[in-house]
Amino acid sequence: MSIHLTPEQEQRIQTIVKAGAYRSAEEALDAAVAAVENAAAPDFEGTQEELEELLREGLESGEAVAADRAFRNRLRADTDRIAREHKARKPHP
Prior knowledge:
Layout: H1 7-18, H2 25-40, H3 48-60, H4 69-89
């Protein structure tokens, strides 16, 4: 699967990588996907595979609704917080 990022999304990812929060864009995107999964099912106690299957079923059901502005803002804030925490844990030379 290939995805296309908006210029703003690319810039945000590059800013996070350049700040040293992640070693690569792929690593930053993995963290972002994990944040989305956690936001979608914060109390889920099953396996990662079970969560992915449930999310896939929900998307395929036709009931998925585009996220509203408040959700995107919360997700952006959560992603920024995760990046800051990750950078703070990174050992400094």
